[in-house]
Design a protein that fits this description.
About 50% of the residues lie in helices and about 10% in strands. The chain has about 375 residues and is α/β, with parallel strands linked by helices. Strands 3-2-1-4-5-6-7-8 form an eight-stranded mixed β-sheet, with helices on both faces. Bound molecules: nicotinamide-adenine-dinucleotide. One of its GO terms (cellular component) is cytoplasm.
Length: about 375
């Protein structure tokens, strides 16, 4: 299934990232966000996303979808076939917003939630009409570049909704992974939360600074993880004997005090000051927007390189990037070829203008 019209409820860091991905795929999006600054903030993210996509597509971008700002959730979702909720991570707010979306959205529209860790079962109780169409579609920041989306269904979610959600996310260049059992924080954030807790301990205990810890990641396993995951990397680390040898070698460490995981650092002002002050020092003169640009340039460059390895077939996120950029390039060509002006019609005198029906069909197809 492809998206004809989308709605984004919440246009913050993540909501705006969704808007950028959708719009750059030629899809119209209606946004509802009560923040009076929302359109400026979305505009900033759009600027960054366009800049990144221009690097991905030197031949030109597809015609952008239209962004509109709705005054209510009801108006935003009224004619949408795909709705993505990205409001702050509070269950009471998710309930309020999802109840309203459910009340006003077309019955067959799919509703995705960007939640980082709330179980869909706990959210869909607020949906009185069609709770079966709610899925978690958990993305990673920046949504317009990172392809992964974790899909999680709740107790009331229909399997068909998961299948449609998979198709929808894939149609905008994403890699949907369906999480097999519903748990808090799903898989990505469970892993990240473990690393985050350890990182807080290491800085709090004065073992490393924020900057040193980031260096330890980005000069070593961070590079490995961009192209192979934990298990494949460790398989290789086991040498010719592979995973069995790796496990035998590091099995005993499971009983050693290598992690503080069961213990959580106390969250207080002292901890926040310690981390935030060091983070300010690490950033130096670089603003958040400048850091975003550096991040985006690096991500595009990494995916581009990964699209060329493995005998030209691409590898991991790079193989997907190759398909995605091809899909967008085709969409951009269609835009250029569309006989909108007399000049364009003159250029192709032998061809009859397409009837409205087939034009519509082509427009639907180009998004796939
Ligand atoms: N930031 C991340 O890295 C990240 C990654 C993945 C998922 N998420 C999830 O995405 C969701 C949004 O997070 P974020 O980081 O974009 O937060 P954010 O604070 O940047 O944005 C939230 C937006 O929601 C708006 N909002 C508040 N009440 C609203 C309402 N009633 N209706 C519509 N909009 C409303 C706010 O004005 C704000 O613009 C959360 O569930 C979060 O867990 C965040």
């Amino acid at each position: 299934m492809t998206i004809n019209k989308a709605a984004a409820i919440g246009g913050g860091v993540i909501g705006a990232g969704w808007v950028a991905r959708l719009v750059l795929n030629g899809i119209d999006v209606a946004i509802f966000d009560p923040d009076p600054e929302a359109s400026r903030k979305v505009g900033e993210v759009m600027k960054g996303a366009r800049r990144a996509y221009k690097q991905m597509l030197p031949g030109g971008l597809p015609k952008e979808g239209r962004i509109t700002y709705a005054k209510t959730i009801a108006a935003a979702v009224a004619d949408a076939d795909f709705i993505q909720e990205s409001v702050p991570e509070r269950l009471d707010l998710k309930h309020k917003v999802l109840a309203e979306i459910d009340l006003h959205a077309p019955a067959n529209a799919i509703v995705g939630s960007s939640t980082s860790g709330i179980k869909p079962t706990d959210m869909q109780v607020a949906m009185k009409r069609h709770p079966e169409r709610l899925v978690v579609g958990h993305p990673f920041n920046p949504v317009y570049l990172l392809p992964l989306v974790e899909i999680v269904g709740g107790e009331q979610t229909f399997p068909e909704a998961i299948e449609v959600a998979k198709e929808i996310y894939a149609s905008i260049g994403m890699k949907p992974v369906v999480i097999r059992k519903e748990i808090e924080a799903f898989v990505g954030d469970r892993l990240l939360e473990a690393a985050w807790r350890e990182a807080l301990w290491l800085v709090k205990d004065g073992i490393t600074t924020v900057e040193e810890l980031d260096d330890i990641m980005r000069y070593s396993f961070g590079l490995r993880w961009a192209q192979m995951g934990m298990f494949q990397v460790y398989r290789i680390a086991g040498g010719e004997a592979g995973m069995r040898h790796f496990m035998a070698q590091f099995g005993p460490a499971l009983k050693w005090p290598w992690t503080k995981l069961m213990d959580v650092p106390e969250f207080n002002d002292e901890l926040v000051d310690l981390i935030a002050t060091q983070s300010d020092e690490q950033a130096g003169d670089l603003s958040i927007r400048e850091l975003e640009r550096i991040r985006d340039d690096n991500l595009v460059a990494i995916m581009d390189v990964l699209s060329k390895t493995n005998k030209g077939k691409g590898w991991g996120a790079g193989a997907l990037y190759k398909d995605y950029t091809r899909q967008l390039a085709k969409l951009a060509v269609k835009k250029k070829k569309k006989p909108t002006s007399k000049a364009a019609e003159k250029a192709k005198p032998a061809k009859k203008a397409k009837p409205a029906k087939s034009k519509k069909k082509a427009a639907g197809k180009k998004k796939g």
